[in-house]
């Protein structure tokens, strides 16, 4: 019964802010906020799935930066895994093209201002220590994206008010 299907969620970071997306469907999820992404297809690498989903849903050109450790159960057979991601130079700004009807760039202080899907709360919390390494300006170079040592930065939990 090991038939899990991975849903990749993108912690898209830019200028120290995280992109949150409000779902427009299905009805039981509509109005709640999530990390944009979607299901990994058969034979597809999760990082490739993330880049594809962010292009389809938001019209952006991105790269996956680093895996956020952990795995969060969704409705069976789905599990959520999260990667930080950054906009590549020249990418358009994200727009809610499909699955979403509103987007917000959140600072760490604003992270709990939106009504995240329940199952996303621990995943979003887990991204916080990665904001320093995952933050791209959209014009940066690869060297700024993969400095694992910064992932333990002391301010990684700033703004966290949720239990
Ligand atoms: N993308 C995404 N999906 C999430 C999150 N949290 C969560 O419960 N889900 C659920 C919603 C959906 O039931 C499922 C992902 O479906 P999806 O509709 O985003 O994926 P998809 O684009 O590949 O879907 P499809 O229309 O091609 O079937 O996981 C999240 O943070 N990001």
Structure overview:
- This protein has about 160 residues and is an alpha+beta fold.
- It has one domain (about 5-155): Nucleoside Triphosphate Pyrophosphohydrolase.
- Helices cover about 15% and strands about 30% of the residues.
- It contains three helices and seven strands.
- Strands 1, 2, 3, 4, 5, 6 and 7 form a seven-stranded mixed β-sheet that branches.
- Strand 1 and strand 2 (about 15-25) form a beta hairpin.
- The chain is globular, with a radius of gyration of 15 Å.
- Mean pLDDT is about 85; it is low at about 135-160.
- Belongs to the Nudix hydrolase family.
- Keywords: DNA damage, DNA repair, DNA replication, Hydrolase, Magnesium, Metal-binding, Mutator protein.
- This is 8-oxo-dGTP diphosphatase.
- One of its GO terms (molecular function) is hydrolase activity.
- Its cofactor is Mg(2+).
Shape: globular
Give the CATH class: Alpha Beta
The fourth-level CATH homologous superfamily is Nucleoside Triphosphate Pyrophosphohydrolase
**Amount of beta strand:** 25-35%
Note the run of SSEs as H and E: EEEEHEEEHH
- The total of helices stands at 3
Structural class: alpha+beta
Ligands in the model, by name, code or SMILES, are: 8-OXO-2'-deoxyguanosine-5'-triphosphate
Largest sheet: 7 strands, mixed
Average per-residue pLDDT, rounded, comes to: 86
Number of domains: 1
- CATH domain fold name: Nucleoside Triphosphate Pyrophosphohydrolase
Say how many strands there are: 7
Instruction: Using the CA coordinates, give the radius of gyration.
Output: 15 Å
What would you say the CATH architecture is?
Alpha-Beta Complex
Distance between the termini: 33 Å
Proportion of residues in helical segments: 10-25%
Uncertain stretches: 136-161
EC number: 3.6.1.55
Pfam families: NUDIX
Catalytic activity: 8-oxo-dGTP + H2O = 8-oxo-dGMP + diphosphate + H(+)
Family: Belongs to the Nudix hydrolase family.
């Amino acid at each position: 019964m090991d038939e899990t299907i991975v849903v990749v969620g993108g912690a898209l970071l830019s200028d120290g802010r995280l992109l949150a997306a409000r779902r427009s469907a299905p009805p039981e999820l509509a109005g709640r906020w999530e990390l944009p992404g979607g299901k990994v297809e058969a034979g597809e690498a999760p990082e490739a799935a993330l880049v594809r989903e962010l292009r389809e849903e938001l019209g952006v050109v991105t790269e996956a930066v680093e895996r956020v450790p952990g795995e969060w159960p969704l409705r069976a057979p789905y599990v959520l895994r999260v990667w930080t991601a950054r906009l590549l130079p020249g990418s358009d700004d994200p727009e809610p093209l499909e699955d979403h009807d509103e987007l917000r760039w959140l600072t760490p202080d604003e992270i709990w201002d939106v009504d995240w899907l329940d199952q996303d709360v621990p995943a979003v919390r887990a991204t916080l220590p990665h904001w320093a390494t995952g933050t791209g300006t959209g014009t940066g170079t690869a060297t700024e994206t993969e400095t694992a040592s910064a992932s333990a930065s002391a301010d990684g939990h700033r703004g966290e008010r949720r239990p």
